[in-house]
């Protein structure tokens, strides 16, 4: 059961993962959590680094799709300035949102990656969907109140992961 939480990669920031690295691993689409992964939960504008990374993905022909548990209205408002497609009410840690997005693009499980900042939702959902995953550090230290319980439980999962997988470490990018 513990392996269900283990990310394929652990990268400090998604912005350091280049389209070339993704393509080298056969990845043709990036699915991403929204809050504290792409944008700070309290800053829907995003950072210059995010906008640069999104432009690089677009130039490389790699779609970026937001997979969020939030309502359609909340996600639409949050990604309005980013102009990103999304799947709302994804029910993470279940695989529904990831599977819907993957099938909509007509891609195999090996051709997508799920990016997120939480073991309890994002990494578990990726495993449930049978896709690879990238765990990133949260953009900011604070979370919405709905995430605080997950962070509390995550501490215990982290301890077990590190005990069973001592080589688990943060990387600068996928090639580190």
Automatic annotation (TrEMBL):
CDD domains: HAD_BsYqeG-like
Pfam families attached to this UniProt entry: Hydrolase
InterPro entries tied to this protein: HAD-like_sf, HAD-SF_hydro_IA, HAD-SF_hydro_IIIA, HAD_sf, PGPP1/Gep4
The organism's place on the tree of life at top rank: Bacteria
PANTHER family registered for this protein in UniProt: 4-NITROPHENYLPHOSPHATASE-RELATED, PHOSPHATIDYLGLYCEROPHOSPHATASE GEP4, MITOCHONDRIAL
Protein name as catalogued: YqeG family HAD IIIA-type phosphatase
Source species: Limosilactobacillus avistercoris
Upper classification of the organism: Bacteria, Bacillati, Bacillota, Bacilli, Lactobacillales
């Amino acid at each position: 059961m513990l392996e269900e939480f283990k990310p394929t990669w652990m990268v400090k920031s998604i912005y350091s993962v280049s389209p070339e690295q993704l393509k080298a691993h056969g990845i043709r689409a990036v699915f991403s959590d929204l809050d504290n992964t792409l944008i700070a939960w309290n800053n829907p504008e995003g950072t210059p680094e995010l906008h640069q990374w999104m432009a690089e993905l677009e130039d490389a022909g790699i779609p970026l799709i937001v997979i969020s548990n939030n309502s359609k209205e909340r996600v639409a408002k949050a990604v309005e300035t980013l102009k990103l497609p999304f799947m709302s009410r994804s029910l993470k840690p279940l695989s529904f949102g990831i599977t819907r997005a993957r099938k909509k693009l007509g891609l195999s499980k090996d051709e997508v990656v799920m990016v997120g900042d939480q073991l309890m939702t994002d990494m578990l959902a990726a495993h449930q969907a049978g896709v690879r995953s990238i765990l990133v550090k949260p953009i900011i230290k604070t979370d919405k109140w709905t995430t605080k319980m997950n962070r509390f439980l995550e501490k215990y999962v982290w301890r077990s992961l590190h005990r069973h997988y001592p080589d688990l470490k943060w990387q600068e990018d996928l090639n580190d």
